[in-house]
Amino acid sequence: MPPAGFQDVQAMVFVGFGLLMAFLQRYGFSSVGFTFLLAAFALQWSTLVQGFFHSFHGGHIHVGIESMINADFCAAAVLISFGAILGKTGPAQLLLMALLEVVLFGVNEFVLLSLLGVKDAGGSMTIHTFGAYFGLVLSRVLYRPQLEKSKHRQGSVYHSDLFAMIGTIFLWIFWPSFNSAPTTLGDGQQRTALNTYYSLTASTLSTFALSALVGGDGRLDMVHIQNAALAGGVVVGTSAEMMLTPFGALVAGFLAGTVSTLGYKFFTPTLESKFKVQDTCGVHNLHGMPGVLGALLGVLVAGLATHEAYGDGLESVFPLVAEGQRSATSQAVYQLFGLFVTLTFASVGGGLGGLLLRLPFLGSLPDSQCYEDQIYWEVPGEHEEEAQGPLRVEERDTQA
Amino acid sequence: MPPAGFQDVQAMVFVGFGLLMAFLQRYGFSSVGFTFLLAAFALQWSTLVQGFFHSFHGGHIHVGIESMINADFCAAAVLISFGAILGKTGPAQLLLMALLEVVLFGVNEFVLLSLLGVKDAGGSMTIHTFGAYFGLVLSRVLYRPQLEKSKHRQGSVYHSDLFAMIGTIFLWIFWPSFNSAPTTLGDGQQRTALNTYYSLTASTLSTFALSALVGGDGRLDMVHIQNAALAGGVVVGTSAEMMLTPFGALVAGFLAGTVSTLGYKFFTPTLESKFKVQDTCGVHNLHGMPGVLGALLGVLVAGLATHEAYGDGLESVFPLVAEGQRSATSQAVYQLFGLFVTLTFASVGGGLGGLLLRLPFLGSLPDSQCYEDQIYWEVPGEHEEEAQGPLRVEERDTQA
Amino acid sequence: MPPAGFQDVQAMVFVGFGLLMAFLQRYGFSSVGFTFLLAAFALQWSTLVQGFFHSFHGGHIHVGIESMINADFCAAAVLISFGAILGKTGPAQLLLMALLEVVLFGVNEFVLLSLLGVKDAGGSMTIHTFGAYFGLVLSRVLYRPQLEKSKHRQGSVYHSDLFAMIGTIFLWIFWPSFNSAPTTLGDGQQRTALNTYYSLTASTLSTFALSALVGGDGRLDMVHIQNAALAGGVVVGTSAEMMLTPFGALVAGFLAGTVSTLGYKFFTPTLESKFKVQDTCGVHNLHGMPGVLGALLGVLVAGLATHEAYGDGLESVFPLVAEGQRSATSQAVYQLFGLFVTLTFASVGGGLGGLLLRLPFLGSLPDSQCYEDQIYWEVPGEHEEEAQGPLRVEERDTQA
User: Fold this and answer.
1) How far from the centroid of its chain's Cα atoms is residue A80's Cα?
2) Which residue, A89, B95, B338, C74, has fewest beta-carbon neighbours within 10 Å?
3) Taking every annotated instance into account, which residue ranges of this chain make up the domain Ammonium transporter AmtB-like (chains A, B, C) (predicted)?
């Protein structure tokens, strides 16, 4: 059987992301189904692309468990971008996006990890920051001025929120495996898992507290719990394998949960009204800001690395520092440069992707048909629902 | 703790199969509940039966993780047969079916693996072909000419399809563990997992493509996605541990997804109208045809085995060939004979099982009461639903 | 990545307990959400408390995978207590309960395992008996004479029962990991997993049989299947690592399923009417009685321990007996005393907890507002449902 860590990552990608996005009342089939399609495609395409960068020897790409985990990581970045445009794009557009994003993910990762010697085990930069800003810039290019027409389908219903919550829980429990999957066995891996675990518990508590505080009547908002509680896993993606210490992880998680919850409450509306970025799942709050924070935390913790603190472990975490090729400060500068490179690749790539997805033959949806499964799926009992259900509201819209 | 591979297989049997069958609108309690009952019973009974065949020494049956995995495999075959008669049989009938099927599964597996020296790690023959044709023949014997009377309950509703989709995803992500659980550790196990994984990604893509192609209006059908996407796991059940190569796995998965989707669209209706086989879950498309294809693929790949291609691994995959007792061609003939034996056991056993299940004291359901939880379960709020819900349709039927 | 056993326990705590309690029709957000909050809090707080008792050296608490598993076990006890008061307490009250219970859990566990040398790997005493009676006594102190006013929300609906059933299945499949997580690797761990597994299959069968027998019309009750089927895991919590034998495990599981199902049918109503204990989830039937039975089974199996039966394994299961410091009979007496200590800590702690939770500033719910998400959560479409849904019933109640 494959190692447990690989299966945990697979469960996050397919069950976690798929269900987390199933919160929309009339878009559950598409959320789960297109996650399935996109991830299956990204896994294959990424195995080729990353294989070309990392394991192309003698005319052959060498595959193994490691390449499977790398491919899952790339699929995660694609699904994060999917979250920003959820409900507003069809499967052909999504596959085209994945075709481009997988290549850019591979290039960006290669530049960071192989050329710059940047450390990013859990992917605060390569996965979360890259995936989020790629998707957000893409969503900006695809801006829909009349999205208001689909607003009645943009919310959740009781059971769709429960499905999404199962996705959240799956992501939460397996996140320690995600961050520690690429690290070498032993002490380093256990440290990574423990730091992730502490950060997640802290972001969960701060999310609950903040959600009740910012809600007008002291009530909790499911959107916050489903998403911001996970920010603790994102924020330690770079630094969890470093000597972050449990206390540092708790502080990082607490901050990430706070920033993420405040982002959902106050920043997402501004993002749409001022910056014309329509971010369906709030990936800016869950992956964007916590990812950048995580990269900066990595800069800080890398800059503080000493031979005393790491002992024999320095070789596996910062090999260039251990071998004397770089000082810790220099490593920190490289880390910061890695963030800059990632933001550049993500923005340019997302812009390019947006232009591609506007190609006329891809058949873009009208603004009044967003967040609706019936466009792409045979939905059971749909005729009945068309007569009585949410679509009636739309008909009224058209009459008005 | 038990090894991860065992837990993955348990998750497939209980969560995967249970939810996959929960697609029916009024049969969710029975799908999940009877899966639970049948699997718990089959695990115990199979531990005894298989223990008798494989680990009966000095008057004692020896148990361990291996016997637990074998028992789970047998439970999977029973649940596949359950899929063919889902909604049309009661718990007493199902337990009787399991009582018989577990014994025949044990005999068939013993004949194939121990007497004939056939290889079938992931059970294309012993699990999928056997379970599917046992259930299909049994369903033929239990043919209900007036099943039309329960047709209004045979479809899904929005949320039941989402539950089923969770089942699909669980089966998908853990299938590499399933196929590789019985293989020896190391290279062979990793190869098995990788081949399964490539085959599954390919069958997922071909299923999405075909589903949109064969749908009249280009829309996707949830039934295809929930089922045919998994055919890639079935089709490499025999050959995944062999030198199938990633490319071979991709081709096999692509074909399996195609055949399975076309089966749902075109063959299932014929199966009922021409052959009087009512296959509730379409097990012929997901397990039957892909299982037979998988067996034939095993014949082909076994026949091509050479010492050069396998190196030291030949001993663990084809010990009789490695030891010179058989040529590769001879092994291929044995593999083919194994398929023939399996089809015979399954057909005769299914026929016998059907006759047993028609025994009058088992209280068969009337044709108008199929696919209905209320027969066996106390359903919450049922009085209300009886007045307003799907059963109203039935009342109208009766009046007509 | 962290070891698979740890991830399995996490899945039980967050997915299993959370969904199992989501059976209530209008309390799914709170069941899953407060489980998430309570578990995240208990994990942090318990790491500190248990760290103080078990791994406080040189002014530092030492953490690792072992301390994470211990913290999960403590969280499980807190969630069991939560089950007894589900729907009748707010998040502030729950956090206060956890604050107290985690400390008492740590003290009780320290007394049993470290001072008395009692064995309780899977926590029949320390987790199930402690959690259940702590919660039940607490529920007694918080007795609501007019809870009848919320009765219309106390039942399930079709899909909430399916969510709960997923929780059951997750607990069921990972229970072997739960009971064996703290045992040492190797034979002992495999024995623990196997015994748990046999016990669970037996309790599942006896629960199905009893549920149909005690139902007036031979139909199955989802409440029994969701809960009593798991009693087999509870009842071998103490003895699974001992030489219980597969046959002993089957008998224990069969009895536990029987007692638990009969408890739901006959004892829970009495518990409320006679003893004024309102036990929302029936934790007395799933954790209380099977936990005490499991402790007594541990007394019996410990008393029968011989050097011959255990061989080299005696050292790891009963080190004090192996070293000659205690006879097997003496170990049995200590086990019995451990049960007595646990019941005392749980009862006194639960009583104290109840008094704390009645502090006026914690804002207790009125009896007519129990089992209702809208008090604590922004519920989608709630205005609509307020007009037409279950709350209408309440309005009528008030008018009457």
Assistant:
1) 4
2) B95
3) 6-358
Residue A57: strand, helix, or coil: strand
pTM value is: 0.93
The H or E element that residue C60 is part of is strand C60-61
What are the boundaries of each domain within chain A?
A: 3-359
Q: Verify whether the Cβ–Cβ distance B377 to C219 is below 8 Å.
A: yes
Phi, then psi, of A306 in degrees rounded to 5: -135, 160
Within its chain, how far is the Cα of A212 from the centroid?
A: 25
ipTM of the complex: 0.91
And the tokens for C127?
A: 């987790």
| E strand map for A5-94 | 56-57, 60-61
Q: Tell me the nearest-neighbour CA distance from A33 into chain C, angstroms.
A: 20
Which ranges constitute the DSSP H helices of C236-284?
Answer: 246-262, 268-273, 283
What average pLDDT score do residues A135-160 get? 92
Question: In this predicted model, what pLDDT tens digit does every residue of B131-145 receive, in sequence order?
Answer: 999 999 999 999 999
Over its C-alpha atoms, chain A yields an Rg (Å, rounded) of 21
Cα-based angle A142, A143, A149 (whole degrees, multiple of 5):
120
Residue in C15, C36, C378 nearest the CB of A221 = C378
Q: Which residues of B touch A38 (CB under 8 A)?
A: none
**One-letter-per-residue 3-state SS of C275-300:** CCCCCCCCHHHHHHHHHHHHHHHHHH
**Best residue in A162, A211, A221, A241 to probe C by mutation, most C CBs within 10 Å?**
A162
Cβ separation of C208 and B91 shorter than 8 Å?
A: yes
Chain A partners of C23 at a C-beta cutoff of 8 Å?
Answer: none
Q: CA nearest C26 in A: which residue?
A: A158
Give the pair of three-digit tokens for residue A80.
């994060």
Of C8, C156, C181, the CB nearest to B380: C156
CB atoms within 10 A of CB C378: 18
Structure tokens at A145: 């001025």
From the list A8, A63, C189, A72, the residue with the least C-alpha distance to B4 is: A8
Q: Is a pLDDT exceeding 80 seen at residue B60?
A: no
- Fold classification of A3-359 (topology level): Ammonium transporter fold (1.10.3430)
**Rounded Cα gap, residues B132 and A268, in angstroms:** 51
Burial class (CB in 10 A: 0-12, 13-18, 19+), C120: buried
How far apart are the CA of B357 and the nearest CA of chain C, in angstroms?
19
